[in-house]
Amino acid sequence: MAPEVGEILISAQEIAGRVRELGALLAREYAGREPVLVAVMKGSVVFLADLVRAWPGPLDLEFVSAESYQGTQAGGVRLVLPQDLGSRVAGQPVVVVDDIYDTGATLEHVCEALRALGPADLRTLVLLRKRLPPEARRGRGRPDWVGFEIENRFVIGYGLDYHGRYRNLPYLAVLGGA
Ligand code: IMP
Ligand code: MG
């Protein structure tokens, strides 16, 4: 295996079990409503694909792009929204889905942009949340739902990348040497 792939942090089976729980929980939470899931590309797509198949209820999907990392170094957040997003989310219950909550800057930017489009309700779901000292956080508040809390290490796999690689690993691993 590539030396960049370190210790396995969360196995494919553990991920699958938790994603099933989240799907069931959200289906109950949104019973009788049809939320719009807004996935933050690219990191959330693997999680999203499994989540929606564990969610037995009506929902719609939209995508936004956010890039906040150059390798393992935190930088600014660049957001790209589709032109018709406003008409899709206005007046609707919206759930933002992201891979990982690190400093929280990305989710905060995405939520700010979405709030301006007038959703009926805006909630957030992340697969992972890193344990960081409070002074390292940049987002206010916290995600409404979290799959796993993890230590502050750089992780790859299950959608998460290092310089564009390793998104296709079926498990979550620590970046080798990180
Ligand atoms: P935040 O803006 O600091 O919360 O960072 C969130 C974004 O940075 C995520 O959507 C990821 O794309 C990326 N990111 C943060 N930590 C990691 C990591 O450990 N591995 C891979 N990507 C990460
Ligand atoms: Mg991301």
Description of the molecule:
The chain is of the alpha/beta class. The protein has one domain: Rossmann fold (3-Layer(aba) Sandwich). The protein contains four helices and nine strands, in the order βαβαββαβαββββ. The protein has a six-stranded mixed β-sheet with strand order 4-3-2-5-6-7, with helices on both faces. Strands 1-9-8 form a three-stranded antiparallel β-sheet, with helices on one face. Helix 1 packs across helix 2. The longest helix is centred in the N-terminal third of the chain and has 18 residues. The protein starts with a strand and ends with a strand. The relative contact order is 0.22. The model has no long low-confidence stretch (mean pLDDT 93). Bound molecules: inosinic acid and magnesium ion. The site of magnesium ion has 6 residues, from strand 5.
The topology string of helices and strands comes to: EHEHEEHEHEEEE
CATH level-1 class: Alpha Beta
Q: Which molecules are bound in this entry?
A: inosinic acid, magnesium ion
Count of domains: 1
Strand content: 25-35%
Number of helices: 4
DSSP strand count: 9
State the separation between the terminal residues, measured CA to CA: 16 Å
The main pleated sheet reads as:
6 strands, mixed
Main β-sheet, spatial strand arrangement: 4-3-2-5-6-7
Instruction: Calculate the mean pLDDT score and round it.
Output: 93
Task: State the CATH architecture.
Answer: 3-Layer(aba) Sandwich
Net shape: globular
**Gyration radius from CA atoms, angstroms:** 16 Å
Secondary-structure content class? alpha/beta
**Unreliable runs:** none
Query: Could you say what the CATH topology is called?
Result: Rossmann fold
Q: How much helix is in the residues? A: 10-25%
